[in-house]
Amino acid sequence: MFSAFDHAMMARAIRLAEQGRCITTPNPFVGCVIVKQGRIIGEGFTQKGGRPHAEAMALQSCVVSPESATVYSTLEPCCLHPKSRGPACSDLLTKARIARVVSAVHDPFDGVDGCGHSQLRDAGIVVDIGLMEDVVGEQLRGFLARVTRRRPWVTLKVATSLDGKTALANGRSKWITSAEARRDVHRLRAGACAVMTGIGTLMADDPQLTVRDVPCDRQPLRILLDSRLDVADNARILEGGNVLLVTAAQNESRESQLKARGVDVVQIPVEQVKGKVDLQKMMEMFAVRGLNTVMVETGAKLNGSLLAAGVVDEIVAYVAPSILGDPARGVFALPEFTELAERTELNITDVRQIGADLRITAAVRGK
Ligand code: AOF
Ligand code: ZN
């Protein structure tokens, strides 16, 4: 069904889509290429805030009439749905008298969910679905995770010595990894919808959690998990707004103080057994708020709790060529296991050297 030329055009659409990676959230970043008589006549990608869509941009950019052209789109073109914020791409493509639409993945979004493809077919357009779907499934994994399983894609970042330690026993940790690795972390932050930390790390390191070392058109939402509302007024994370504070505590006066400073405060019920914020429910709340991807940068306690709660999809570990010794602090605070079967198993998906350090990306098995 798909030729080498089809593959080349979809690969181009996938590359174009990357230009929207950091700016379209919660909308997926889509790429689109329009081809007529073997020549690219228009292309586009989803714009800041999610509109205009990739197909609309591509149609607009056509240098000749797109009538009878083929459209390559990384996502199923949308159809009109109750929450539409603009024209439906299926209508735009039909009106443009496109002959064939090739898409990589079906859009599971409630309003679309197959109706984009079926409306195109009903209009007499040839629709071929599934070209390079593995690549786009990976590219849009955050959006697809939020829509299909109602939880964001969660990446946990850690920075350790070769012996897996994050800080000396006295807490000193600046710096274990190189400046290049730390800049790479900013690049990861830039691509995430939100960056999250816990109150323990906040008290120890007072992080800003902003993107600084790389170009970035928008700052990710900063999330602080602070069960008892212990955050101090002068914490750097509170500067500049764009902060979501997740708590289990009820303290109306503190909450209104924080809200007056532009901090969004949300209460999550406490999980029955351990009496802590229910992390599953917290992730569901993030999805409801439109967060596709959450990057976590925190300490061993929250790392361990998130892993144990089964909400971590991927770990990105920066490993420095140094040894800190056993008294130093570890990465995941977990209860003692007595059987190896209790361990979390990972699949390494990427390994590369960043400056003097190694960066290992590993998917949590079963995710
Ligand atoms: C497309 N092309 O480039 C993108 C699409 O809020 P709206 O009206 O923009 O619609 C949002 C939904 O549209 C979004 O959740 C996803 O299903 C789809 N995104 N569709 O045809 C695009 N970004
Ligand atoms: Zn659309």
Brief overview, please?
By secondary structure, this protein is of the alpha/beta class. The protein has helices at 4-17, 54-60, 89-95, 115-122, 133-139, 141-149, 179-190, 199-205, 252-260, 279-288, 300-308; strands at 31-36, 39-45, 70-75, 100-105, 126-129, 153-161, 194-198, 221-225, 243-247, 263-267, 293-296, 314-320, 346-354, 357-364.
Description:
- The protein is an alpha/beta fold and about 375 residues long.
- It has two domains: about 5-140, Cytidine Deaminase, domain 2; about 150-365, Dihydrofolate Reductase, subunit A (3-Layer(aba) Sandwich).
- Helix content is about 25%, strand content about 25%.
- The strands form two sheets. Strands 10-9-8-7-11-6-12-14-13 form a nine-stranded mixed sheet. It has a five-stranded mixed sheet with strand order 2-1-3-4-5, sandwiched between helices.
- Zinc ion (ZN) binds near residues 53, 55, 77, 78 and 89.
